[in-house]
């Protein structure tokens, strides 16, 4: 028993000596739980502590430096985009229709028909890109190009119906059927425009940049970067166009012959062309999609890109 008391006395003396050597230890609160409880009560009382902290944190964030373009700021880009594409798109559409139905009208006739629908195509294309822009801003570019494809089905549809009636191919086509085959169209443009738009930079960074490293010369490096970027855009455009050509042929067939269902359109394309139906007329779309994807880089990306906020 005396041994236990001696140990207690020794511990007490040791604690007294430690506190006398370091007075700050003697001043520390012994009930940590009560201290934490008091502080928590101060912060949580009426929720003011939390809201003040959040408010202070929000005030500490730097103000945004960029914003999206307004609707009116986008219009010069959209109108130029629609007009530029509509110079080439009707002729390419007529060419593909002739390839599918194996007819050879005079070039002058195709040019005349293309010029006659240029204003309609420009307006439709401009509206198409304006409608798809909010989808890109609130979802993502893949969804935007799916919407572009569905609407593009109507743009192509107006041209296909006009040409089919003028060239007397398929059955009598009505403008009420310009959106036939939109399922084909949505997937088609997700591939043909979405892949170059979203993947060309990745292709450049993981292939061309690896094969042709950048130079120490800043001017030469900028030139080489541009060459590699456009090489990537063009190469991915060609591959994506041929990947989606079969879908385009099926929609064109549905619009020219509006009695066909989806399955019947696929069957008709393969019956008439075999596996070549997957790529028939693709050379026209390659040329057109090269123009489209170049315009995507020059006009659509700037229209969709944020701009600095003026102070």
UniProtKB/TrEMBL annotation:
Region of interest (Disordered), ranges = 1-68
Presence of keyword Glycosyltransferase: no
Give the compositionally biased regions (Polar residues).
Answer: 10-41
- What InterPro entries does its record include? MCP_dom_sf
Question: Where does the UniProt annotation locate this protein?
Answer: Membrane
Report the SUPFAM superfamilies cross-referenced here: Mitochondrial carrier (SSF103506)
The name this protein carries in UniProt is Mitochondrial carrier protein
Q: Which organism is it from?
A: Phaeodactylum tricornutum (strain CCAP 1055/1)
Its taxonomic placement starts with: Eukaryota, Sar, Stramenopiles, Ochrophyta, Bacillariophyta
